Amino acid sequence: MSNLKKELYDLCVAHVRRSMDAAELAISEAQKSSNDDTKSSAGDKYETGREMAQQETNRNLAQLNEANKLLVALNRIGTSGTSAIVEAGSVVITNNGNFYMAISAGALSLHGKNYFAVSPGSPVGMKLSGAKAGDSFTLNGKTYVIESVS
Fold first, then answer.
1. What is the pLDDT of residue 41?
2. Are residues 53 and 98 in the same domain?
3. pLDDT exceeds cutoff 80 at 146
4. What single-letter DSSP state applies at residue 56?
């Protein structure tokens, strides 16, 4: 099972790295666009273009900062060992889906099965935290029975 945890962890890291790469590329493109703008007789157009590029850069810097926070959160998660209760790094099998308690990274497909990477602060993560096999909870009108925790 620890191999499964490691593989799910690696998929989450890859998800964050893709976000970081996309943000860095967008920042680079916005800065290049801003630098390529030349001052013309239409000064307002030049200033508007530079301001839009700056706003794009700032937005992508914020996304990069959030991705860095996710990477820090992932670095705190162990990929070996098991626990009887759901905690960060746990793989949880329920009657209504499989979950990996780490970060909100959406659906992850591994070995023909789907797992939902959820953060402990998400609605489903809060319901799962501290639960154990045999526990159940209801979320959005759907009842989940925890079949196993590892």
1. 46
2. no
3. yes
4. H
pTM comes to 0.86
* Residue 44 or 106, more confident: 106
Q: Looking at the structure, do residues 70 and 22 belong to the same domain, yes or no?
A: yes
Partners of 26 in beta bridges: none
Query: How big, in percent rounded to 5, are the helix, strand and coil portions of the chain?
Result: 50, 25, 30
If residue 107 lies in a helix (H) or strand (E), which one and from where to where?
Answer: strand 106-110
**82 falls within a domain:** no
Sheet of strand 142-149, all strands in order from the earlier edge strand to the far edge: 106-110, 113-118, 97-101, 91-94, 142-149, 136-139
d(CA 41, CA 77): 56
| Domain around 11 | 2-75
